[in-house]
UniProtKB/TrEMBL annotation:
Coarse class of the protein's main subcellular location: membrane
UniProt-recorded name of the protein: Spermidine/putrescine ABC transporter
One Gene Ontology term from the biological process aspect of the record: transmembrane transport
Gene3D superfamilies: MetI-like
Signal peptide: none
Stored InterPro entries: MetI-like, MetI-like_sf
Organism whose genome encodes this protein: Aquibium oceanicum
Source organism phylogeny: Bacteria, Pseudomonadati, Pseudomonadota, Alphaproteobacteria, Hyphomicrobiales
């Protein structure tokens, strides 16, 4: 009798799990995997101007590997995305640390302010930075008023630095939240023990807090790095020709060039590079993370 009741509960739990996971599984396997399979299929087709191309060929990948332009733009994209990731983590970690250990009763308000940029359009935030960094923008006007510059500078806009600053600001909330969650799991007794043993605050952060929070830091790095590699909106608005990233080339192939198979091959190449980066981060997580 008891065994039958136990079997009934297990069956109900199994059916509940199936019903709850069905929407996510449908989105993952039907929409995402179908889209990825379609991109992979297109990348192996020749371009004849039709929707799905004609014939199967590896010529698209051969062009990517033989033309130095794509390798150079890919390396530039990785360099800019790496700089954005480092700048975002450097700005986000102190904020997350303050939220986890120092904010007190202001934590809710500060968390609200951190998520406030999500209330505005991504394009509006990029245009705001364009206004700040422009030749007659806010930054040049402020430096002229302070006497730092004698005339407006052209170095702030249409440079890779402008792309790094704009993307770091746009993705900062995505980095703060996972680091904050990781910091919240650290018991206060560990910090008290470090203090009782004579560790100064800076040493406690470097030897205790930072190693334990590394899973959150690595998760934040992935959340920032992966989407910024393929970003094309920000480089086109504030980066200029010297900041063209691989996302801009992909967008051009699907747009003006009307060569969807080659654009799909570029997309698959970017995904492979990102996959290799994720694998490296996973290895680093196992090496430096606190999870067993």
């Amino acid at each position: 009798m008891r065994a039958g009741a136990e079997t009934g509960r297990n069956g109900s739990a199994w059916r509940f799990s199936v019903v709850m996971s069905a929407p996510g599984a449908a989105v993952t396997f039907v929409l995402i995997l179908f889209a990825l399979a379609l991109v992979l299929f297109l990348s192996l087709r020749g371009n004849d101007g039709s929707l799905l191309g004609n014939g199967f060929t590896t010529g698209n990948y051969a062009t990517i590997l033989s033309d130095d332009l794509y390798g150079m733009v890919m390396l530039r994209s990785l360099a800019i995305s790496g700089a954005v990731t480092l700048a975002t983590l450097a700005a986000a970690y102190p904020v997350a640390y303050f939220l986890a250990f120092r904010a007190g009763r202001w934590r809710g308000l500060i968390l609200f302010l951190v998520t406030l940029p999500f209330w505005t359009s991504y394009l509006l935030r990029v245009f705001a930075w364009k206004i700040v960094l422009a030749y007659n923008g806010v930054l040049n006007s402020a430096l002229l008023s302070l006497g730092v510059l004698s005339e407006p500078s052209l170095l702030f806009l249409n440079t890779p630095y402008a792309v790094v600053v704009t993307l770091a600001h746009a993705y900062a909330p995505f980095a703060i939240l996972p680091i904050f969650v990781a910091l919240q799991t650290i018991p206060g007794s560990l910090l008290e023990a470090a203090s009782d043993l004579g560790a100064r605050p800076a040493r406690t952060v470097l030897r205790v807090v930072l190693p334990i929070s590394m899973p959150g830091v690595l998760a934040a790095a992935l959340v920032v790095f992966v989407p910024t590699v393929g970003d094309y909106v920000t480089p086109s608005l504030v980066g200029g020709p010297s900041s063209t990233m691989i996302g801009s080339l992909i967008q051009a192939q699907f747009g003006k060039a009307n060569d969807w198979p080659f654009g799909a091959a570029l997309s698959v190449s970017v995904m492979l590079v990102i996959l290799a980066t994720v694998a490296i981060v996973r290895l680093a997580d196992r090496r430096f993370g606190s999870r067993s």
